[in-house]
Amino acid sequence: MDNSAVNFSVSSGQVIVALIFQMWLVIFPVILMIKINRLTRLWEERFGGEEEDQHV
User: Fold this and answer.
1) Cα 37 to Cα 26, 28, 43, 44, distances in angstroms
2) 42: nearest Cα among 54, 34, 53
3) What is the DSSP string of 21-55?
4) pTM for this predicted structure
5) 10-37 pLDDT, tens per residue?
6) pLDDT for residue 2 is more than 60
7) 7 — phi, psi (to 5°)?
8) Can you tell me the distance from the alpha carbon of 18 to that of 49, in angstroms, rounded to the nearest whole number?
C-alpha cells in the first residue's frame, strides 16, 4: 500500500491574500445590494413609484 502524503507550504502573505479574497466574496455582494437599493430609491423618487390606480 502506497502511503504518500502531499505537503503544501503556504506563506503568511498567501494566507493574508486568501483571507482578504474570502472577505471580499462576502462584502462585495452586500455593498452591491446597498448600492442597488439606493439607486432604486432614487429612481422611484425621480420618476415616481408604480401606482396601479392611475389607469383605472
Assistant:
1) 17, 14, 10, 11
2) 34
3) HHHHHHHHHHHHHHHHHHHHHHHHHHH----GGGG
4) 0.57
5) 999 999 999 999 999 999 999 999 999 9
6) yes
7) -105, 130
8) 43
